[in-house]
Amino acid sequence: MEGELTYEQALHLLDQKLHDLEEGELNLEDALNTVDQARSYLQTCQLRLEQARQRIEVRPEPPDAVTPAPPPPPEPTDLLF
Questions:
Q1: Among positive and negative, which fits the CA dihedral 57, 5, 11, 25?
Q2: How confident is the model at residue 53 (pLDDT cuts 50, 70, 90)?
Q3: Are 31 and 17 in contact (CB under 8 A)?
Q4: What mean pLDDT value characterizes the chain?
Q5: In contact, 71 and 44? CB cutoff 8 Å
């Protein structure tokens, strides 16, 4: 199920699990299960962030995009103070 969660949903569920652990009222078995669930939500968050990063880095330019020309080199008089 975690594979289908959005980043925001997984983060919210991770926050809930961490809150449950911080309260300190879980028995050992429930605490261990909660840690396992929290890890799963954390992995989902990391996966969604990696997917977003890849979309940003690999975003191709549209075919009709115009690349601006580089600025002309400075005139010799511009180099003199």
A1: negative
A2: very high
A3: no
A4: 86
A5: no
Q: How far is CA 43 from the centre of its chain?
A: 11
Gap between the Cα atoms of 72 and 53, Å rounded = 34
Contact 45, 7 (CB under 8 A): yes
Both tokens assigned to 1: 């199920």
Could you state, in order of their start, the residue ranges of all structural domains in the chain? Answer: 2-57
**pLDDT value, residue 47:** 96
Look at the alpha carbons of 36, 18, 46, 2 in this order and tell me if their dihedral is positive or negative.
Answer: positive
Residue 4 is given by DSSP the state G
Task: For Cα atoms 18, 19, 21, give the angle at the middle one, nearest 5 degrees.
Answer: 65
Q: Give me 9's structure tokens.
A: 């949903």
